[in-house]
Amino acid sequence: MSIRFGVSPIAWANDDMPELGGETPLESILKDIQELGFEGVELGGKFPRDPATLKPLMARYGLDLIGGWYSGELLLRDAQAEIAAMQPHLALLKAMGSEVFVFAETSNAVHGNRRTPLTGSPRLQASEWPLFGQRMTAVADHVQAHGLKFAYHHHLGTVVERAEDLEAFIANTGASVGLTLDTGHAALGGIDSLRIIAEHPRRIAHVHCKDVRLERFESSWKQGESFLDGVLGGMFTVPGDGALDYARIMEALADIGYQGWIVIEAEQDPALADPRRYAAAGLAELQRQARRVGLTG
């Protein structure tokens, strides 16, 4: 597989805040994505979960279903219980020919709670990482055995948020546990994306690209605002519109011979940041940088 560009529907309709784009029809979103030139889209809350309905819908717009976020609870249940719980999601992705299973531990996450500030993210004690890692590896082994890449999503407001969290996570999980490297969450969590790519190339299973407006993030942090308030305040944007150096990020991916999806996932208020216009700009930036470093022709 070479490089393919996809997008998350979150810029059009935010599942964490249904008031953002909740009225936008799914077919309008898919039409935009097709016309902008993306090859695939990640699963969103508006998508039907029946493959018999979803397959012809995706075919109508010539789009692949890349994969989709799964909220795990491995801090509360063992691997077998998690595997049982994920079967409907896994079955849908398999039926759709998806390539990536995006997993995030959300049992104690705060990113969806507007009453909890960005500073209130959960932490794991050193003694808790081994069991968490063992369970995660068992789940990843199962997903991999079904033909999908397991891609853990580090995320603000979760137990894998900071650089030390990610290092502990990698140290305590096996080779089947890949990463969804999210450049925006990395930057705001103090994670060096370039170092992670260089030092853990075999773990890079999937890439989410967003840019960050650091001054808006810092303002939200200082004011004790929540993750969702930060999103509403505009701390995220598309590649090329913020503080991140996508020339270096693409060079790093080229250096490790990355093959797979590169997905724009940049949530903003669609009433203030037109999803189509921003997605077009982000895709143009990624394509330009990818061509420059030889990731694409």
Task: Provide the number of structural domains.
Answer: 1
CATH superfamily: Divalent-metal-dependent TIM barrel enzymes
Major sheet attributes? 9 strands, parallel
| Count of alpha and pi helical runs | 12
Output the structural class: alpha/beta
Q: Percent helix among the residues?
A: 40-55%
Strand order of the largest sheet: 3-2-1-11-8-7-6-5-4
Poorly predicted segments:
none
Q: Could you describe the 3D structure shown?
A:
The chain has 12 helices and 11 strands. It has 297 residues and is of the alpha/beta class. It has one domain: TIM Barrel (Alpha-Beta Barrel). Strands 3-2-1-11-8-7-6-5-4 form a 9-stranded parallel beta sheet. A two-stranded antiparallel sheet has the order 9-10. Strand 5, helix 5 and strand 6 form a beta-alpha-beta unit. The longest helix has 19 residues. It is globular and about 50 Å long. The two termini are 14 Å apart. The mean pLDDT is 98. This is MocC. InterPro entries: IolE/MocC, IolE/XylAMocC-like, Xyl_isomerase-like_sf, Xyl_isomerase-like_TIM-brl. It holds the Pfam family AP_endonuc_2.
Which features does this protein show?
12 helices; single chain; 11 strands; TIM Barrel; globular; 297 residues; two-stranded antiparallel sheet; alpha/beta; nine-stranded parallel β-sheet
